[in-house]
Amino acid sequence: MKEFLFSPVFIWLVCMVVFIVVEIITVGLTSIWFAGGALVALLSALLGMPVYGQIVLFLLVSFVLVFFTRPFAAKFVKPHNIKTNYEDIIGKEVRVTADINNHADTGVALFNGQEWTARSIDDDVIITAGKTARVVEIRGVKLYVKP
Fold first, then answer.
1. Which one-letter DSSP state was computed for residue 18?
2. 123 three-state secondary structure
3. Is 82 exposed, middle or buried (0-12, 13-18, 19+ CB in 10 A)?
4. With contact defined as beta carbons under 8 Å apart, do 143 and 119 qualify?
5. Has this prediction a pTM greater than 0.85?
6. How far is CA 44 from CA 12, 29, 111, in A?
7. pLDDT tens digits, residue range 75-124?
8. What's the CA gap between 132 and 139, in Å, rounded?
């Protein structure tokens, strides 16, 4: 039993399990690639390859998996970025409900029933209440609009 605990087969098996557990805990596609390398090293140990060959295989397979398959896998495994509701407002028209005057620090616009603090993208342009404006960008909780 003592010989088995210190055999390369057991060591690679433990390494593989540790890498898999770390991957399950982090869910970041960080260590699963090394688990693949440990699996190949484990198989080579079972086939009687010398330890230095197992280490070389582990490093080589891990390197190949990290650098060639990780970008491809990350693209499909990680959820796609979904726009938040506020990002959807950019480019849309809003109704100005209170004069937008950057010098007076005033302005309110309405979008889908929600009031937003609004400022003109150009400091010298005043947009009067009742007009429509197009959202150019959002900074914090303020809409920056143009007529």
1. H
2. coil
3. exposed
4. yes
5. no
6. 10, 24, 64
7. 766 555 555 566 778 899 999 999 999 999 999 999 988 899 999 999 99
8. 19
Residue 2: is its pLDDT beyond 70? Answer: no
CA atoms within 13 A on the CB side of 15: 22
Q: What is the DSSP string of 24-50?
A: HHH-SSSSHHHHHHHHHHHHHHHTT--
Name residue, tokens 């342009």: 125
Q: Count other C-beta atoms under 10 Å from residue 131's C-beta.
A: 14
For residue 94 the two structure tokens come to: 């809003």
The answer to whether 14 and 21 are in contact (CB under 8 A) is: no
The whole-number pLDDT of residue 98 equals: 95
Max distance between CA atoms of the chain, in angstroms, equals: 85
d(CA 81, CA 143): 22
Q: Is 79 exposed, middle or buried (0-12, 13-18, 19+ CB in 10 A)?
A: exposed
Whether residue 97 contacts residue 109, with contact meaning beta carbons closer than 8 Å, is answered with yes
Rounded to an integer, what distance in angstroms lies between the CA atom of residue 76 and that of residue 69?
Answer: 11
DSSP state for residue 9 in the 8-state scheme: H
